[in-house]
Write a structure and sequence with these properties.
With about 240 residues, the protein is of the alpha+beta class. It contains 9 helices and 13 strands. It has helices spanning about 20-35, 45-55, 70, 115-130, 140-150, 160-170, 190-205, 210-215, 235-239, and strands at about 1-5, 5, 10-15, 20, 40, 60-65, 75-90, 105-110, 135-140, 155-160, 175-190, 220, 230. The strands form 3 sheets. Strands 6, 7, 8, 9, 10, 11, 12 and 13 form an 8-stranded mixed sheet that branches.
C-alpha cells in the first residue's frame, strides 16, 4: 500500500519514523481480514498514480478524492467522505463566509489535490465577475502549506477538515470555514480481482460498525450506502 504520509492525523510519520494514522489502521484491518501482510510505502502524492500503473504497489491508501478522471485510470473504492476547510493564521481578523471572500489574497494548497482545483474554480469565478482573483500558491504537501500560513507567507490554506483541526490543535492557525465541497475519498487499485475483494471487506466493515468505529475519533464519516468498486471496466465482465 502506498501513501503520502503528510496529513496528520490521517496518515503521517511519527518521530521514530513509523507511518501511522487512521488510514494506516484501515489498511492494517483490511490486510488482516484478507489474511495478507500489510506493507506500507511512503511516496509523494505526485508519484502515487504512476507507481500504481507501473505495478510498484497494489493499493493507493492516501485518502485520494474520487474523480471521474481518476476512475478512468484505476479501480476506485469510495469508502469515506471528506470536506474542505479554510484556515487562517490565528491572529487574522478576517471574517469569511465563502472562499470568494479571499478575493485578491494569497491561498496555499497542496499541489495537484482537489483543494487546488476548488481554489482555481473560485479564482475563475472571481475573475469572471470582474473581481480580483486568488493568488494561489502550491506547496509540495499540506504540512508545508500550514508552515507558510504560520509564517504569514499566505493568507489562508485549504485542506481537508481533519487536517485543519489537527493543525489548529497544534496552534498558530484556525479553521474559519469547514465542511466545504464534501466529496467521496477512495482507495485505488489496479487489479480488478483484488479490488472486488477489498470492496467486499470494506462493506463488511461498514455493516458490522468497524468502519464507523475506526473513523469516529478522527471526525471522519464513512461513505453512505453500499461500498463497491467504481471506475475502470472489469475485464472479467467484458468477456
Amino acid at each position: 500500500m502506498a501513501t503520502n504520509p503528510t496529513l496528520p492525523p490521517l496518515q503521517y510519520v511519527t518521530v521514530d519514523g513509523s507511518i501511522t494514522g487512521m488510514r494506516m489502521q484501515l489498511g492494517n484491518e483490511l490486510a488482516r481480514r484478507l489474511c495478507l501482510r500489510p506493507v506500507v510505502l511512503s511516496t509523494s502524492f505526485a508519484q502515487l498514480t504512476l507507481g500504481l500503473l507501473e505495478k510498484r504497489w497494489d493499493i493507493i491508501n492516501t485518502g485520494m478524492f474520487y474523480t471521474p478522471q481518476r476512475a478512468k485510470l484505476m479501480h476506485m473504492i469510495p469508502y469515506e467522505i471528506q470536506a474542505i476547510s479554510v484556515s487562517l493564521n490565528e491572529e487574522a481578523a478576517l471574517h469569511l463566509s465563502r472562499i470568494e471572500d479571499l478575493s485578491g489574497m494569497s491561498v496555499g494548497v497542496e499541489m495537484g489535490g482537489i483543494e487546488e482545483r476548488h481554489a482555481r474554480e473560485a479564482d475563475d469565478a472571481l475573475r469572471a465577475a470582474g473581481r480580483p482573483g486568488l493568488e494561489i500558491k502550491t506547496f509540495q504537501n499540506v504540512g508545508i502549506a500550514f508552515a507558510g500560513l504560520r509564517a504569514r507567507q499566505v493568507t489562508a490554506v485549504l485542506s481537508i477538515d481533519a487536517v485543519a483541526r489537527r493543525n489548529a490543535e497544534q496552534g498558530g492557525v484556525k479553521p474559519v470555514l469547514t465542511g466545504l465541497y464534501p466529496t467521496p475519498v477512495a482507495l485505488a487499485l489496479r487489479d480488478p480481482d483484488l479490488a472486488r475483494e477489498v470492496a467486499a471487506v470494506l462493506e463488511d466493515m461498514r455493516e458490522d460498525g468497524t468502519l464507523e468505529h475506526l473513523m469516529a475519533p478522527y471526525g471522519v464519516m464513512p461513505f453512505p450506502g453500499h461500498i463497491t468498486v467504481s471506475g475502470m471496466p472489469d475485464p472479467a465482465k467484458e468477456r
